[in-house]
Amino acid sequence: MPLSPTDEIVGPAARAGVGAGAFNVVQLEHAEAIVAGAEAAGRPVILQISENTARYHGGLGPIGLATLAVARAALVPVAVHLDHAESADLVHEAVRLGFSSVMFDASTLPYKENLRATREVAEYCHARDVWVEAELGEVGGKDGAHAPGVRTDPAQARDFVAATGVDALAVAVGSSHAMTTRDAVLDFPLIAALRDAVGVPLVLHGSSGVADAELARAVATGMTKVNVSTHLNKQFTAAARTYLDAHPSAVDPRKYLGPARDAVAEAVTRLLRVLHGVHGL
User: Fold this and answer.
1) Collapsed DSSP state (helix, strand, coil) of residue 151
2) Alpha carbon of 163 to those of 114, 159, 242: distances in Å?
3) What digits encode the pLDDT tens for the residues 258-273?
């Protein structure tokens, strides 16, 4: 199939041994900030919208269309990606809106059900030139692939990718979602084993909990797409809180959302440089 904008970012990153930054959009300011940060770094970027964020906005359409508009106006390559969709109907909607990739998450299902559902989504998306990421952790892990202690088995990952035809695989190697501290301990031998076993780019979820040096090492060991959300939200909230603490009578949201947006842009620029092996910045 023709390359999607996501594949045009992730594929070259995988071949070059650098990381592709994928950052979650919660509201319009996030999309603007992430693109501004990518432009400052001179790097491509992936804007991600999760099923939870679509639910927060009452549907995928409003935030999805706004994010697509921001992406089209960017001065660097930008892809728009549906993150952690558990509903095939939401995947179909994202494809209709013009998203270039989706992450279908059936990781909480038993292995055979995960495989069947993921294969169906991959077939639907590939027929429409849309790139597909899936997730695989421990069989029966009821809290999902990134619950504490869960790990992805390399042999099973190899078989899963071959059977589903997905374009990338999110794997469980020690990170967890929604971490507010950056002290996750990654399993680097497992990352290397997965890299050797699986013939598609690997994806690290829960990267907010991973320190810069460990992120760089994860990319050098075999990770390609690196997802970040909570860390940016921390920067956003801290900057807004700082402004409001200094200006308790402020009522115009632009006054505190502006600094929050700037803080996210700065964090994105720094993280993209880390993922591309630029140190000391």
Assistant:
1) coil
2) 11, 6, 50
3) 999 999 999 999 999 9
Looking at residue 47, its amino acid is L
Q: Distance between CA atoms of 237 and 232, rounded to whole angstroms?
A: 9
Structural tokens at position 168: 């990338």
Catalogue the long-range contacts made by 49-54 (C-beta closer than 8 Å, 24 or more residues apart): 49/24, 49/25, 49/80, 49/81, 49/82, 49/83, 50/24, 50/82, 50/83, 50/84, 50/85, 50/229, 51/82, 51/83, 51/84, 51/85, 51/86, 51/87, 51/90, 52/84, 53/24, 53/25, 53/26, 54/90
- Per residue in 234-251, pLDDT (tens digit) is 999 999 999 999 999 999
Q: Are 14 and 201 in contact (CB under 8 A)?
A: yes
How many angstroms separate the CA atoms of 57 and 59, rounded? 5
Residue 47: strand pairing partners: 23, 80
- Is pLDDT of 172 > 90? no
Cβ proximity of 194 and 201 under 8 Å: no
Residue 176 token pair: 């967890």
Distance of CA 240 to the CA centre of its chain: 24
Q: What tokens appear for 101 in the block?
A: 């990739």
Write out the catalytic residue numbers: 83
Q: Where are the beta strands (DSSP E) in 141-233?
A: 168-171, 202-204, 223-228
Beta-bridge partners for 19: none
